[in-house]
Amino acid sequence: MAKVSIIVPVYNVEKYLAKCLDTLVKQTLQDIEIIVVNDGATDHSAEIIDSFACKYPQIISLTKPNGGLSDARNYGIPYATGEYIGFVDSDDYVDIDMYEKLYVKAKEENSDIVECDLHHVFPDGTIDTEVGERIQDKKQMLMMGRSVVWNKIYRREWLQNTGIVFPKGCIYEDVEFFVKLVPHIGKYSYVDAASIYYVQRGDSINNKQTLKTLDILKVLQHIKDYYVEQNWYEEYKEALEFFYTRILLCSSFSRMCHIADKKEREKALQKNWDTLQKNFPNWHKNKYLKQLKTKRGLYMRCINKVTYKIFSAVFALR
Asked: Is the dihedral of CA 274, 276, 277, 278 positive or negative?
């Protein structure tokens, strides 16, 4: 059994892939396996994978037809034998001691999940470090936790027992994956180090705002349905209400405001508003929203049908 299995989905990232894999094969943690899933890449990614696989026995090379990021991650999970599983996107890279730090903390605290901080790497070469909150309360974690999948390791047996996988065909897949996991968590730990480098690509799907942005509405519905099915909905209702409100009036709203086509933008913004009203018509009265004493909290509390349209017009110009 490996200590950590690292799953790396690959699709047309020849410019970044070698750097990513180089930081993984040089990890200070011994007994790791690197599961590289070629998701039908059409560039030279396959040749790069082959060259690393020939040199480094810890690399397991898999190839499948293109199915998207979620499908590639899901495909790799059954091949993992490690005590813990990690995920790295193939255009990012990590410190060579990242997985040693995460694994040591996991063993010290018998953790289900261990998280580290991260760096944002911009096209001009500048790097900003993001330090997250050390949240333990599950409702706070649902509402404000950092949902990205690649700055964590997950206990493999625990993860597989939850039955939770990534939603195929949707962007914002990390959001659904993380929020569904929250009620299952026994022990969540943090490492006080920023060990992964999140490369900001101008050609990334996350930087191209289209009607695909509406995938967040599917993801939110999947989450709500899951909590209902698991009989957790009443326990987490107010936290879910706040979560919906924060996503639909902040991050999702901002992205939809930057859809270039005006008709598509208006369509997305209307669906965004309607989704919030349909699922949580009394969101203004949410106790967590009332308690949020920040600029973001003030902004959300002042939103109504009229101010929503005003902010839509303002944000579209930014």
From this structure: positive
Tell me how far CA of residue 134 lies from CA of 119, 146, 159, in angstroms.
Answer: 17, 10, 21
Amino acid present at 36: V
Q: Which two tokens stand for residue 307?
A: 């101010």
pTM over 0.85: yes
166 and 70 Cβ atoms separated by less than 8 Å: yes
CA distances, 255 to each of 180, 218, 230 (Å):
23, 16, 31
Inter-CA distances, 165 with 72, 179, 208, 249, 311, Å: 11, 12, 25, 27, 35
Whole-number Å distance between alpha carbons of 150 and 140: 20
For residue 205, name the pLDDT band (cuts at 50, 70, 90). very low
Side-chain half-sphere of 28: how many Cα atoms within 13 Å?
12
Cβ(187)–Cβ(112) below 8 Å: yes
Closest CA to 171 of 93, 89, 237: 89
Residues, the chain: 318
Name the percent of the chain in helix, strand, coil, to the closest 5: 50, 20, 30
CA atoms within 13 A on the CB side of 54: 6
Nearest to 104 by CA among 173, 221, 189: 189
Interval 216-254: pLDDT, tens: 999 999 999 999 999 999 999 999 999 999 999 999 999
Q: Which residues pair with 86 in a beta bridge?
A: 6, 153
Q: Would you list the domain boundaries of the chain?
A: 4-202, 209-316
- The CATH superfamily holding the domain 4-202 is Spore Coat Polysaccharide Biosynthesis Protein SpsA; Chain A (3.90.550.10)
**Cβ-count burial 260-287 (b if 16+ within 10 Å, e if not):** eeeebbeebbebbbebbeebbeebeebe
Determine how β-strand 59-64 pairs with β-strand 32-39. parallel
